[in-house]
């Protein structure tokens, strides 16, 4: 008996062994079940080695109490005392997991699963887990068997038999076995469904990557096909029923709880898409609609259950698309934005405790590794692992990540995953929040081997590892510019004046003395601006040198920096967003047009970044009109309104030019746009939409100032030529016709005067000298040409075309399309001219001869004196005029019968002619290639020289810049000219046959 006021020796020993409630533990040990071993030093030592000795003892007492009889209790106690493997495993689990202790209390015989200690038991695989689940006959027994298998995984984990990566792999294998068992149960419940379909289950996320948590949603995608000879529709419905049943078997709560939710939301279209698709449907979606994050998710795709052959086919079909994801526009930006959104969506109160999603958490490591995999895995198959740590090791081995950085990331990731496992294991609940209670932190710390001061040590190690991840993640993920700097020669990451001079000479700067002065101005000083620019300059110099005029690039960068250098967002843009700095370098060194547009409003540099500046994607005509009309509505008078509209036009011209340059040059992470036709179409569509929106805004401004809300006459602007064809270039005039129709009760003279005043005022306002480029309106394609009235009523057009219309006017009307003003009037104008441009019975021979004569006359009269006809993009052989007139003759001949030819766009009409069999595929391809190339040359000349031109420049640097835009490197200008002559010569051959000989 212990004397009053004195602690028993058992109490003291319990304190020494780590019990926090020694009195409660002493009472348990004095109970009938544990009395035989209450003083056994082996038991107390083993309990003291657990994460929570009090919890372990409570679990052991409950397990003994749950045994069916005294014999069973004696067997359990004897085995615990005599068999160290069982003792360590059982007590280790009981001290780390209240949930598994609860399971053992409900199923008191399951402790026998921890007795065996065979080699296969040390590292079980999928086969062993399938054997462990094979007796499950319903969802309840499947849960019991699952927990029994989980018990063995947790036992090896807490005893240190397996490391965190092996535990995660075992959990993924157990999940795979569970999905297979659940699918078998679903099939057994609906054999008629199983008979008509082939269903494969593709694991995604951590299960697919072989790195699952204790408690996590198991992400899957279902793919199905009809059984041989079966109906696809019926098969998909059957497969959907099986898949839904599988999900319920795993997810629904029963008397034994649930296993884990099966989440199919990573499928195409997410929860809005069908649960099950065929392989062809999956492939079509990913080829056409999938977003960047969906390809990132496919990194971890792995077939786990169901039809193995179909699962393999799914992976083989989609894997090539995964490794092309980095070629997608805005790829890195998309990944960065997605990661930022994840952090932003965490409740503020939880950010610092969020182990997975918070800054410096597990997701930072995973995203950084996946980004590098997607960028470099295209060419290096060794990086194509779905497992984070394996991929990180491969990145280090390949030199994509520094070895020291990789080791630190590996250590941090393992520690954070171990914390995550211990947090989830306690209650078997899905959580990634580090608990705030000291008792919980103590248990977690002790489970990780931190025994001196578990709470303090755990917090310190956790913060240290998240700090390492945050630092390295920013280096690898958010600071791509710093990596580029690291690739330069030693000593050049921070430039001295002499190093800068040597570097510029080596890079081919034509005027290194001037360039050095710019560098000194940019990099000298102790300001934040100078510090950021010193970091960027080595990389920028390399990007400038990749252009034809690096001197201009550096000079322009200095101008932008002088204008914006004190603006915080500009410095952040350059520091944080690698794409912005590289895009800026490309734009500033590609020619005169884009820098000139930028210098007039330097804040447009924000468009080059990855943030909220709008990016380089062209804006729709609707959005442009909305912005311009709103600006006009706020203006005090027409001149202010049109000034605002021209300002929008300048900004959007810069956006279009910058996107064109970046797409043509490519970047270090994305190749130049391979589809030259797509580049041409984007520029033509963007500039045409912008011109239409500007004219619409100008019309609104003029009408509002002169007449208020309503003009006395309905008024419409009809786009002609390249404007009507959505093919405007940077320097194109806007060819138009003006049509009006007096409103009811308005005198025709009054209406005509109003319409003429509108036209003259629009033309004046759009050409007022200012910092914004003028927009010239050309109405020379109107009836009677320059001799005819600028504006006509619809009836006047009808009368003229009925009596006097010439062939060339019908020809010109092929490009007519309403672009602004009264929509109904524009529609009726189109109805009026359709019979002229698409004549019934086609084009007569007299008309064909007239068109040929007109074309020959135009070429002889308009070709500039001294110009090389073979290099004239518009009037030269095989140039724009040749291709367009050839296509337009086909339209006038056949558009009445072939609806696809009724378009104002050259390439669309050519494609429709091909579809209708009006010319061979080879001829169509030759004409299209020549038209695209000639258009690209015209765009390049405007971008490089800052003024329009139809021939290649003669100055060597300008010619080289055109070559760089077209994809020709230094020294290959001759190849560019030869390729142009060859392409247009082939096109001229087709024109001779179709236009002149047909």
Describe the protein.
The chain has 998 residues and is mainly alpha-helical. Helices cover 61% and strands 5% of the residues. The chain contains 45 helices and ten strands. The strands form two sheets. Strands 1, 2, 3, 4 and 5 form a five-stranded mixed sheet that branches. Strand 7 (734-742), helix 36 and strand 8 form a beta-alpha-beta unit. Helix 31 crosses helix 33. The protein is elongated, with a radius of gyration of 37 Å. Residues 1-6 and 477-497 have low confidence and may be disordered.
- What count of helical segments does DSSP give? 45
Distance between the amino and carboxyl termini: 121 Å
* Global shape: elongated
- What about the largest sheet? 5 strands, mixed
Please report which band the strand proportion falls in: under 5%, 5-15%, 15-25%, 25-35%, 35-45% or over 45%: 5-15%
Structural class: mainly alpha
**Overall average residue pLDDT:** 89
Point out poorly predicted stretches. Answer: 1-6, 477-497
Helix content: 55-70%
Number of strands: 10
Rg computed from alpha carbons, rounded to a whole number of angstroms: 37 Å
For this entry, give a set of tags:
five-stranded mixed β-sheet; single chain; 5% strand; 998 residues; 45 helices; mainly alpha; disordered N terminus
